[in-house]
Amino acid sequence: MMKQLKQAFPAILMMLGVIGSVALVSKISFAMTRLAQNNEQQIPETKPPLPSKYSDNSNKLDSELKLKTQDDVTKLLGNRKIKEIKFLKWKDAKPPKEDNPNIDGNRKVWKVTDDYVGGIDFDSGRCKSNAKLTQVLDAETGDNLMLEVRCPKGSFESSHPKPTAEELRILENSR
């Protein structure tokens, strides 16, 4: 029996080599097919950009807008001392670095500026004096598109607890 096994051993090795080669070729072929499929799937589709939430409404008549006049704006904002109200397009009203893909540049808006000499409270704190508030309202819907509060240096009080010395050190080292 041992003699027969010794005689069959080279034949068994050859068969295993052939089977291994077939299996290896099969695995490589499978992997290449998968790679080709993945490459086909990874071709990016070119889709048109999504429409902005606040699309161009420059072709609408002012009579079709919710906020038609400065009086409409002051009624919406309540009893605020308004310094200036301007009827503009979004591209002319937004801050230079503001880029919002949800608002078309030709969208009709009202830009309102206020001065709060006595200060103003807001979510993150309080501006103790000489606050400047800029607000942009959508003329068609009355939605608030932007609100900015500017506070002179030294006039801001945070509503958050003051950072510890350790937190200040970490913040300084992270810059």
Name the descriptors.
175 residues; alpha+beta; 4-stranded antiparallel sheet; 3-stranded antiparallel sheet; 4 helices; 7 strands; 23% strand
Overall description:
The protein is built from 4 helices and 7 strands. The protein has 175 residues and is of the alpha+beta class. The strands form 2 sheets. Strands 1-2-5-6 form a 4-stranded antiparallel β-sheet. The protein has a 3-stranded antiparallel β-sheet with strand order 3-4-7, with no helix packed on it. It is globular. The relative contact order is 0.12. About 6% of the residues have low confidence.
Blueprint of the fold:
Blueprint: H1 2-41, H2 70-77, E1 82-89, H3 90-93, E2 108-116, E3 120-122, E4 125-127, E5 131-138, E6 144-150, E7 156-158, H4 165-173
Antiparallel strand pairs: 1-2, 2-5, 3-4, 4-7, 5-6
Outline of this structure?
With 175 residues, the protein is an alpha+beta fold. It has helices spanning 2-41, 70-77, 90-93, 165-173, and strands at residues 82-89, 108-116, 120-122, 125-127, 131-138, 144-150, 156-158.
